[in-house]
Amino acid sequence: MRSPDPAPAIAAPDDHFRQQALARQNTLTKPPGSLGRLESLAADIAAQQGRAEPSVGRVHITVFAGDHGVCAEGVSAFPQAVTAQMVANFAAGGAAINVLARALGATLDVVNVGTVEPLPAMDGVREQRAGDGTANICREPAMDGPQLTRALAAGDQAAARAAAQACELFIGGEMGIGNTTAAAAVACALTGAAPADMVGRGTGVDDAGLARKRQAVQNALDRHGNDASPMTVLASLGGFEIAALAGAMLGCGHRRIPVLVDGFITSVAALAAVRHAPALRPWLHFSHRSAEAGHGAVLKALDADPLLDIGMRLGEGSGAAMAVPLLRLACELHNGMASFSDAGVSDGS
To answer: Which residues form the catalytic set?
Structure first.
């Protein structure tokens, strides 16, 4: 496989603004540290945005959709046609992420990076196909080098659109029947975990389906071998939407846009992106702990402590959207509370 472009340049968040924000937290009318992680969240966002008053009012969500050849192994409780049907549902505004985006006042973008069949033109859906679904990872690499490059570029272009809209927080979501199998294979290759520990029920497969998924991941790993270089792993074992998510996160880091990471599949994309460009990690916030079996191991590999644990495993970026109000309130508290001196309240000294 031809090597993809090198990792983009990603600068560190501005520590001056982090320290300034932490100092301000200690002057506010509350005991130091009493707002817990909301205090460090505000400081992290201030550093990422390079300003004294952080804000996540302008949220941009991009959902990437693609199909997976591994569905031929019987790894999903739903037929592959559901991927295209859900893209149409996104376009019509009927999916969970549509409801959440409306409630948050967020911009929602849908990108088809590779359904098996081309889709008719739909308002709100961008066609940036890397291919007609990936190949069956049990038998051959999911994609070739040019396809990986196209998928990564689709993600980077989503980050560029977010930047053009002065986005303050980016969320990536995914849709693709079979993608928990592909994500589990990528995660195993990157972490060394066994399929039995990483493969979950995804769309709700029964015990026989779970056994097929685990065997499919093992077969894919046996074919792939021991190469743990992240871009090779994505091309060999991943999905177009997983690669696009990685490209979007890398593009956001390059453009100094904070990213709120969703659940298992998006976290696997984040792990590949961070392994490719470690400087990306300080730009990522982790929204929730998915009920999908392998998510805990992926979070551990990323040294990530998510904000929520509410049993979600839908995808689409929905768990990340649920965490946006926490980030918004962290910023509002940081910016809006009075200091002890402003309020004429004794600070106890």
So the answer is: 316
